[in-house]
Design a protein that fits this description.
Blueprint lengths: L4 H7 L6 E5 L7 E10 L5 E9 L2 E2 L7 H6 L10 E4 L8 H12 L8 E2 L15 H7 L1 H10 L4 E2 L1 H10 L4 H9 L3
Helix pairs in contact: 4-5, 4-6
Amino acid sequence: MGLNIFNIWESIGKKTPFAVKRTNWSNKNIYVIVDKIEPDGNGYGKAYGTPTENGEFCSYWQTDKKWKESRLIPNSGVYSWEYIKDVPLEINRENVIKKTVEANKIKKPVSGVYDIDTNIDFGKYRGLEISILINLNPNYLIWAIKNVSKFKLSYNAINVLCKKIEVKDEVVQINNKKGE
């Protein structure tokens, strides 16, 4: 079991910035640089910071409204954080601006058809590009074709998926019949 961000902040002498990550994150290269704490006096409060991947800004919480508006770290009071030592605590600001702009250019599906560079707008992979999802969890796309009525992959995207894993003909047919 981990600690919450406020426990960690107190244990390191109430100093900022410091780095933390969730104990359940599958990508072990992502961590958060916490640069501001507003304690409430009860072991909780508000923590603000920036997600990074290998020390570079990443758009991990780009779809979280509160983080986008104020950089409020989601779930900062949850007991599943751990302190990270010996990592860079500064981010190149040029990369922050560049990657934030890139994330704001999220490509949405046209008429429910998802192309290879379209971002998925539902489920646990919300905000992820189809090309990344094909490599990360191609079976999720097969599940979506079968179970999400308004989800259809483009001709290009279904071909890339078929090259990655074996896709049954019935799944391709279900996909192709959508929107007819």
